[in-house]
Amino acid sequence: MSPKRVILHVGTPKTGTSYLQDVLFSNRDSLAGQGVLYPADRFDGHFLAALDLMRLPWGGLETQAVGAWDQLAEKVRDWQGSTAIISHEILATASRTQIRKALESLGHPDTEIHVVLSARDLVRQIPAEWQENIKHRRTISYRRFLAQVQDPDRTGRIATWFWGVQEIPDILNRWGAELDPSRVHVVTVPKPGAPKTLLWERFADAFSLDGLDLDLHVERANPSLGVPETALIRRINKTSNADVEPGAYRPLVRELLAHQTLSKRSDSPRLALPPDVWTWADDLSHAWVDELRERRYDVVGDLDDLIPDSSPVPFSDPDRPRHREVNAAALEAIRALLLEGARMRQVETDLRDELRETQIALERAYLRPTYRAREKIVRSAEDKGWGRRLLGFYRRVRGRSSRPA
Amino acid sequence: MTSADQENPGIARAWGWVDHLRAGGDTPWADFAGASVSRGNLVPGAIQLEVARRLNALARSDAFGQARQVDSALGGADNPGHARLVDQILESSGPGRGQPDLELVGVHSGSRFGPRPVDPAQLPTHELIRAAVGLLAELVVEHDPGATPEPPPRLVRPWRRGWSLYGDPLAVSQVRGTLSRAGVEPGRRAPIAVIVADDLAAMLADVWSWRVQHAVNPSWRWWLSDRVRRDRLPRVVDLPRVAANQAARLGADRVHIVVAQHPLPAVARLVGVRRPVDATRVGLSPEALDLVRHLNVVLRVLVTPERHQHLLDSVLLPWLADETGRRRGVPPRHQDWVRQQAERMRDELRVAGYPVVGDLDALVPTDRRREPGTDETGVLDVALRTLLKVKEIES
User: Which CATH architecture has domain A5-222+272-309?
Assistant: First the structure.
């Protein structure tokens, strides 16, 4: 038995996907009661499933993804409610073979499958992708990043990934190849200045969540950084990548510094495109919108949202940031790290205290007369051949060695 | 040819090439002039098609096809196994990050977007490796023989000498395995520790190789640079430290250092084996090890860590048993560091006065030649040879 309908949200990154996924995850019990399945035991469950589907290594997280897609698909197939939702933005980069496998595993063609792609204008997406690269330990300069993205051959790793998750007509070509256009939905991210609730309203429309009882107050988001803050993280990467393990980088740099500290500095200049790249991106956006109009997909929002604003954000070069602004950001970073260091020292002190108390309790146990008597017997036995054999026999019968390591 | 094919001769030519490859052909796309009835606009990707062509070319070459009836070894109705293997390649997807599905140059599928069409002969080798590795990883998982039976409990003969082995992990593993297969197990009498050593450059290459064969996959250059930067040898080949630990347990006179390229005969004599044993020691070639590294990346996503090691031991490494070759060499910029470490070890071991078989001076590398790095084409060839071997196993 399959659900009546499966909604597969496949991208793109930086289009409010973290917020959407967090709302769906934190409301999953309530949704299930209303016939909608969001099959995840952990907030990144669909991310792991996508890694598994695409055999994608991701800094060690992939080891937690073994079999995740098949498990996800099985839950969807077994659901007897009206709708099942799967959402992760890296699915945008799946190959045709992987897409075919994904659709078949979800019951295609017997199940009604809808593909949703949320999209934002390219002029905002390009700097956002560079910033994501920097927050994932890369050190590439903005200029080199832009040159790779603009290279028509797209042979570099950055360009391959960027276009894989951002080229809207191509993503929809791949994901929509076997579906009727009416089952392919494009959700556009509103232009800057639009009401804050508008994007959620569009998602709710595309996912048929209108009218459902949901708690929309969730904490997770993927906040953006300004020019000096991103430049600072890039410099940190350059100086410390060799020494800081990925397992420490994620909580300390990406979470503590970037997300929790530097993203709060909202007065600094925002990342933007230099004028020449802006013009190129504007031309490309028009070509995309023309193509999408011809394809007769279901558009939630307005395709004109994908055309860049005619008054671009002033360009401030992150490869040559103002020293004073970077210094100010660095001081905030140092403060955050000091506070974190102090917190961890306190944790260490508390743990030492606990350990000392445990040692004292253990010593008290050792001082009991029965323990001392047993210890005396064992010591005496170890001095004699028959005693050692007897102890050996006892330890084998007992099933594990009690000898000191 | 249908009217649709006449409208788009590129598609018909592409399907013709697909059929040519399924039949074992190896004509490059640029030289191919045939055509077949179109089976739709979604032609297999250029990367997969080129891997299939290289596979056919390798199967036809002398290197693999010696004393073989080439036509019957390849595709066609007579050999459905080969056609099936080509189909598996064409239906596979490259794992991880890399080029997406690419169209063949000259074939117009109708989209103005997506990556540019390519001439498959111009594709970078690492993309072909990625596609071949993706399929190979799936095949490794498919060929899992299941749980290996527990070995019978070894018969301990207490009157025999007790011994344990330390040092170069690859050499230790080989010596222990050979002795075990010959029925030589440690006893209880007068135990000794034998530390197996070679020149330090070779031992470092062996430690890296051992780690790659145990699902850890940094590149040789990165791994060695990291060691140099930390100014620290891997624990297992920090011989003075290993020897001191054993001396504290057994006494210095019972710690024996064996310095030899082929240590098995010397170790066998020390543990009391009188009969001759096979002394040959060969390791995987750098290209085969690089392939294992690539496969480790994919296997980490496909299976649990326990099953990963099981698959390496019971499936992949046996498939690669013939892919032997030289060890990796230390790049010139690290040779001085390796020499200094080796000289320190030699001096400390000499002062400690352990019994030595061989010459402690041999710990210090003398070969300062610049070793070539691994050749990507060589890695691809190993991958393709292994795919052909799997086909033979299956047929």
Answer: 3-Layer(aba) Sandwich (3.40)
